[in-house]
Specification:
This protein is an all-alpha fold. It contains nine helices and no strands. The two termini are 14 Å apart.
Length: 240
């Protein structure tokens, strides 16, 4: 299949899985709340390991400065997160700032699909599976944040879908015309930046959120995520 088709498949799957998370918490709040930690831990396992063992090494092969780009990606997400959190009151202000953060994060998910699949199928699949796996939990969390902010349930479904689900394919398709024209050196820098973003998302969002509400076997879900990345590295090799 073409690179664009792979990107489209994963971006649309992300939208569907995120939407399922929103629908599930709307219909069955208890099951969705009890299950989200497993999705988050599995996704965290992939998104902390695949950048370190696949994305960053690949980036450094293409550009020796990719490590600096990874640092830039990590710091970019850190400061975006701090700006979103800065000096806001609870309730509706909390909901607005949370939604801004999720919107930025979801747009970047789409860009990550485009950058990784344009580099290699292996990197795209590794990042893609981890990102899709965390979409269910992201849908649950987005809906819950909106309800906590005082938005009624029916409006929360619509806003959660627009902010968390639809933005991922938008990010992927908007970025594609630009990323597909990158030189090898530019691709290396982009991959480095993506590696930093993924490490930040996993270490600073997914793992702490899952740890706060620790569930039995959640560590197993994390190990399964790491194992998935190792198996992809073992059997996939470098697919340029």
């Amino acid at each position: 299949m073409s690179t664009f088709l792979w990107i489209a498949i994963f971006a649309i799957n992300a939208l569907v899985v995120n939407g399922l998370g929103i629908a599930t918490i709307y219909k069955n709040r208890r099951w969705a709340e009890n299950s989200k930690e497993y999705f988050m831990c599995f996704a965290a396992g992939i998104l902390i390991s695949s950048p370190l063992i696949m994305t960053l090494p690949e980036a450094l092969e293409k550009n020796h400065y990719a490590g600096l780009a990874a640092l830039a990606g990590f710091l970019f997400m850190y400061f975006i997160n701090k700006i979103v959190e800065h000096k806001h009151e609870k309730n509706m202000a909390f909901g607005i700032t949370a939604i801004i953060g999720i919107l930025i994060h979801s747009l970047f998910d789409g860009v990550i699909y485009t950058v990784t699949f344009n580099s290699s199928l292996l990197l795209g699949l590794a990042a893609g599976v981890g990102l899709v796996a965390h979409e269910f939990a992201e849908g649950v969390i987005t809906f819950a944040m909106l309800v906590k902010a005082g938005v009624n349930h029916k409006k929360a479904i619509l806003w959660a879908f627009l902010v968390a689900s639809l933005t991922t394919p938008i990010g992927a398709f908007v970025a594609y015309p630009f990323v597909s024209q990158f030189s090898e050196g530019q691709t290396g820098l982009s991959l480095g930046f993506v590696a930093g973003v993924l490490i930040y998302v996993s270490a600073s969002h997914l793992l702490p959120e899952a740890s706060e509400n620790h569930k039995e076997h959640s560590r197993l879900a994390l190990i399964l995520g790491v194992s998935f990345s190792l198996l992809m590295l073992l059997f996939g090799g470098h697919s340029h």
